[in-house]
Amino acid sequence: AESPAVKDASLTIRNGETVAIVGENGSGKTTIVRLITGLYLPGEGKILYGDRDTREIAVSSLFRNSSGVFQKYQKYQLTLRENISISDAEAEPLDEQLDKIAEMSGLDTADRSFEKGYDTMLSREFDGVDLSGGQLQRIAIARGFYRVHDRIVLDEPTAAIDPLEETKIYNRFAEISRGKTAVIVTHRLGSVRLA
Fold this sequence. Notes:
Order of helices and strands: EHEEHEHHHEHE
Radius of gyration: 17 Å
Shape: globular
C-alpha cells in the first residue's frame, strides 16, 4: 500500500481484560488485530507480549492458548463436528461439549438442515447440505469457542447475524471470556458494552 493501514497507534491490553476496538470500515481495526495476534509483523514499531517482541517469538508460541473468530471465516467441506473441532484437532469432540459450544454460538443443531446431527456433511459436493451465511458464521463462532484459550479475538464475527441474535452471542461470549483476555472488533457501538 502507498500509506500504512495503521500509524502511530499505541495501546496496552492487560491479562484478563476485555478491550473493544471500534471504528469505521477501512479504519485499520482488522490490521491492528492481525498485528496483536502475530498474523502480521509490524513494518515499524513493536508488538510486545510482556517484554518480548512478536518478531522474536515462535509462531507456535504466539498462537498457543489463543483463539479467534473473524468476519471472513473458512468453510470446510467436512462434517459439522469436524468444522467446529478443527480449531483444536488434538481434542476429542464429544457431543455434550459440542452441544454446549453450539448453544453459546447460537447454532441450532436441531435445525432440519442438520439431518445427521454433527455428522452432517457441509458440502453439496459430498452429498451434504448448503448453509446460509448466518449458519456458517455461527459455526465459525463455535469453532473459536471450541478451542481452549486464554486469549480470544472477535473481529466482527456477527456481520451476517441479526442484531438481536448478535446481542445473545456477545452475552454468551462475556460469560465464557471471564478471566480471559478478549479483544472485540466492531463498528457497532452496542457491542462494546462488554469491554
